[in-house]
Amino acid sequence: MMYPLVRELAATDAPMRVPVAVTCRVLKLARQPYYRWLAAPVTGAELEEAYRANALFDAHVDDPEFGYRFLVDEAREAGESMAERTAWRICSQRGWWSAFGKPKHGKGGKRPGPPVHDDLCAIVDEHGVIRHEFTANDPNELWLTDITEHRTGEGKLYLCAIKDAYSNRIVGYSIDSRMKSRLAVAALTNAVARRAAAGHDVAGCVVHSDRGSQFRSRKFVHALNRHGLVGSMGRVGAAGDNAAMESFFALLQKTVLDRRPWTTREDLRTAVVTWIERTYHRRRRQAALGRLTPVEYEAIMTAPATRAA
Fold first, then answer.
1. Which of 104, 201, 207, 223 shows a CA-CA span of 20 to 30 A to 169?
2. What is the CATH superfamily name and number for domain 122-308?
3. What is the overall mean pLDDT for the chain?
4. Whole-structure pTM over 0.70, yes or no?
């Protein structure tokens, strides 16, 4: 905007005063809009757009994968309603693009954001190669988490699951129609509540994830701190970065998600919960657990420790 320059040059104390008419003629500006601006430098429309931009930016920072259509919903919940076209204009002018939706020029495109935690599961082997070791000697020593998605006739359904590396038990999960930071926070809260109900103290447990925006969000980091948990985050492009969770999701994909088309989200949600609680936890025996199910393994292996205590 050139109006502040016009005002500055026309000021009575300017070193070389230039009349408004001359400046506007040189800059090819109309004088009437300038005088309207001079009477109210910040218009009501500009103030309203500033409030809208603030609401959109807060939502974008919280969930960087959201496009402008989802940001409109978040801004509306924050009390700033607007049309989708308005949100698109504000976001495009400021470069607030979805982490997934906006094509990036150059090699590699957009890379995941910086980690907010150290990688506590990475070790260096005898050959100097960095690899990951997802093992635990006790329950609630190391949790692994990730998010998967699957299409239904109503749209996508997202699952965030948390697995205890000690027994491979899914200690918490959350299912939602939108992949927001609250999906990861709800799964973490569910895991803490379930373990607390069973008499477990989870303080100090390491929670390892990839660099997904949900796990880098302020809400998820605050949830970790609130429950006394320790975050761990893998490197970009590292082999086996979160292989233990990927193997669980691959099994879920094969045995449930890809078995048939899913008409509604509720149908798929019910199938996923039933498979986790009935089949995976209580019927599917695992070689790594000595041919025991996760529930059996925890019951048998933690009983001696309980008696010793």
1. 223
2. Ribonuclease H-like superfamily/Ribonuclease H (3.30.420.10)
3. 85
4. no
